[in-house]
Specification:
Length: 260
């Protein structure tokens, strides 16, 4: 094969060969892997060069008789291709960074919005004695003050643990709201408030820590006052139960309050 055959790659890619030379080059191309590879490198820039004027085309045709000029042309084509690939890589990397940041935000929002209810662990200790529950009286906390607490008041004292509770249960459009006060609650311990539904399912709606002095005790006379809410309608609630949770996650009841 002749040097001229190899030099026809650029002219063929640009479409400047006549019909005879085109047929001859295509016959050569079928058996020459070097020219085929060279032609592949020139394809991306053919569109860019399609708009060149006649004067420039004449200069390009001179590469058929000037090997050095052809070599410089091919070097320029390869350099352009490397730069194009590098710019595409940077653009892709930037898109990944931006998309990753937005996805992180979206994922965080979905996680917060779709967190499932946590079910209460079953208690393994002996069941507490039946609670002593009564309706609110005029002298109870929150009664007769300047800003009475909303909801139906229910009081309970557990005869086994001695824990006293005052609950204000209010039916809401979103479910049920509850404000509650606990006394005779010794510490240190971790506690939680559990809603037990009439269908025997349960839901933890509040957790807290009790310091060593407890709440409403001889060491700390101040009772503990908290608020919580649940999506469960009041009519579907069997009772509220304050539980103590040990280091192994085992819960035991401290006081139980029925909403009605």
């Amino acid at each position: 094969m002749s040097r001229a055959d190899h030099m026809d790659v650029a002219a063929y890619a640009l479409g400047v060969l006549d019909e005879h030379d085109t047929e001859r080059f295509e016959e050569h191309l079928a058996t020459c892997w070097a020219c085929a590879a060279e032609l592949e490198t020139m394809v991306p820039v053919v569109g860019m060069l399609s708009g060149i004027d006649g004067e420039t085309m004449t200069a390009l045709e001179q590469t058929q008789t000037d090997p050095a000029l052809l070599d410089r042309t091919l070097v320029a084509v390869r350099a352009h291709r490397r730069k194009t690939r590098f710019r595409q890589l940077l653009a892709t990397a930037a898109a990944v960074v931006v998309f990753g940041g937005l996805t992180g935000v979206g994922f965080a929002s979905v996680t917060r919005d779709s967190a499932p209810d946590v079910e209460a662990l079953p208690t393994t200790s002996a069941p507490a004695s039946p609670p002593v529950t009564r309706a609110g009286q005029p002298g109870d906390p929150g009664i007769g003050g300047p800003t009475p607490i909303e909801g139906k008041q229910r009081n309970a004292t557990d005869t086994t643990t001695g824990v006293e509770a005052t609950f204000f249960v209010a039916s809401k459009e979103f479910g049920t709201g509850v404000n509650f006060t606990l006394s005779k609650l010794p510490g240190p311990r971790v506690c939680r408030l559990v809603v037990v539904r009439k269908n025997s399912t349960s839901e933890i709606i509040s957790t807290w820590s009790v310091p060593g002095g407890g709440y409403g005790t001889s060491t700390n006379a101040t009772p503990l006052t908290l608020a919580a809410s649940t999506s469960t309608p009041t009519s579907e609630i069997k009772h509220f139960q304050v539980q103590s949770v040990d280091v192994n996650g085992v819960a035991s009841p401290l006081v139980t309050v029925t909403p009605s």
